[in-house]
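Session log. Operator J.P. requested a structure for one protein chain; no other inputs attached. Running the standard single-chain path with token output.
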Amino acid sequence: RTLLYTIKFELAMRVPDDTTPRQAVIVADSFNSRFKPITLERPRCLLPLANKPLIDYTLQHLANNGFYDITILACAHSAAIEKHLTEGKFGKDERLSVRHVTLNAENCTSFGDAMRELASLALIRGPFVLVTGDIVSNMDLRGAMEVHQKNKAVNKEAIMTCVFKQALPSHPTRSIEDDVIVCLNPNTNQLLGLQSANARRFSYEVAFFDSHDVVDFRYDLMNTSVMLCETHVPERFADHFDTRDMYSFIKGIINEEEMCSETIFVHVLKQDSYAARVSNLRSYAAISHDIMHRWTYPVVPDNNSPPEEQYIYRRRGIYLPNSVRPYKAKIHQNTIVGSETTIDRNAEIADSVIGRKCEIGANVKITNSYIWDEVTIKNDCVIDSAVLCSGATVKANTTVTPGCILSYDTVVGPNTTLKNGTRVTVAATHIRNDSECSNDSEETRCSDLDLSSDTDLLGADSWGKLYQSEEEGSSEEDEEEEELTHDHRLWYLRHTDFPEDNMSDSSDSTPVPSEPEHDDPEAGFYAEVCDSFRAGFAIQKDIDNVLIEVNASKHAYNVSVSDQLLHSTRALLELCPEPREFQKYVTYFAPMFIKLAKDRDSQMVILDEIETWAFERCKLAELQKILHTLYNEDVLEEGNILEWASGCTDSAVMESIGKFINWLQEAEEESSEEEESD
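Structure written below.
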């Protein structure tokens, strides 16, 4: 079945000035197998990215650009998409009216079929934006629309403008499978040729160069899957009845230019715009990290979240909701934790996304992984560079290695180490057309199969089978894509080592600070500050000489004054040998910090970094002592501490420093009374 949704965005604040309907079409299906076995049970457009369904990013992008008439074409899992649109954020929004129609389309197995189905519906009334249901973007489409209108004014036969973004070939958001070499007229940006970068040959006829004075061949452009189309583009797909994808359609238009004179243009986004498509697991991981690093701003977790799931953004890319209090756990950099998730003692999480209502046991180590909703991970497990879908369970003392995918409701373990790239599912492995789609019936669940037959590989209590794609009838091209897509090295970005001090069982060992990688200026600066602090305190060097070294490092790495103070504060907190020496330690460094933090803003940087460090290192209990010591050493002023505390919304922080703040307030009141009496 093909499910057609028409969503009309009645946004009073964003109605376009003109009366022409601004339409958009979303093709929700991907028509490939890159996310199997996950997409045997759920469509790609509903998979969570940073705890938000992919299609919501696409809908939000279009709504932000004023598109109020949106048609969604979906073939696979249409009931699930209908339910999400009805019950989700966009279905509940009073500003939106949602209307959906279900159509019979048994032969809709490709992007081309979807476009031909759109042509038969005759819903397109003018120029429209065509996108896929898995894009994340903060771009302003007005620039691309203006370019398209100008191209149309100059060339009446311009039928499409494809939006590209400049990105190096090695950029992780570029799809290896869909990579192209673009041939342009540099003067007009007309698209003259398109060649797959995976093709074994790259050739153009000599006559091609005779007919064009100048051409640019560009391999630094990434397709964003955003296209501005004229009304008759779906009809052109109907004319080309055997065209299966957009790549073939564009090549066909270019090749037929002499006969039909239709042209396609390219618009290259500005560098400050973000646009990428979740086309495989590699780009899924890369875009997740981009969201955490806020490259997609304002499309970030702490914006537009429902009240019950409001995230608080902390430094180093940490996002925690108010309902999560990981007092005994260690939450490291680039991590999102969903609401109502419980994390037990000594668990460590870094460079990962944790979904809602998850249960993470004691001594669990999670790095560079994506844990979806309602996942259970028992004690003493290690999850490294893996995807755990909703409802999955990892029994105690189990290691999930890089590239593993545990699909919905699967169980592995206990006391097991999965092989790299293991994929486990409870869904049937044979789906029609070997595409990323299935019928909505329960036949995709393999309840009639023996799901405990792979216990020697998955663990004694496992539930699920090793997923193996259908081999019969698959072409050499399909096999190459399968090999590329499911090789964990494609999406596994980097291994994250936890700080050595947190991994040590010895209570009297000297902590080693968690230093960032040295391939970026701030990381190099932080490392040198740590060296200067460590050496200076060890031999009790003149503190002015230590400050000279820190300033020299600041200029060498070209870091800002604010970052200098931030990293110096972090080093001060990390390098303290042991709690009983903290007073001596702060007394030694206090003169330097007094010189660095003379004004209110500088002291606020120190206070914010202390709060961040206390959360990351689970040191909230020591927060009051730290602030009191810095206050006594004249590093922090009373008024600035009270102002910072008044703006703090975290109840755990206020609880830990409440006595100190009350003492400061009482002292301030007494001082005011004495001044009045004088």
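Operator note: The chain is about 35% helix and 20% strand.
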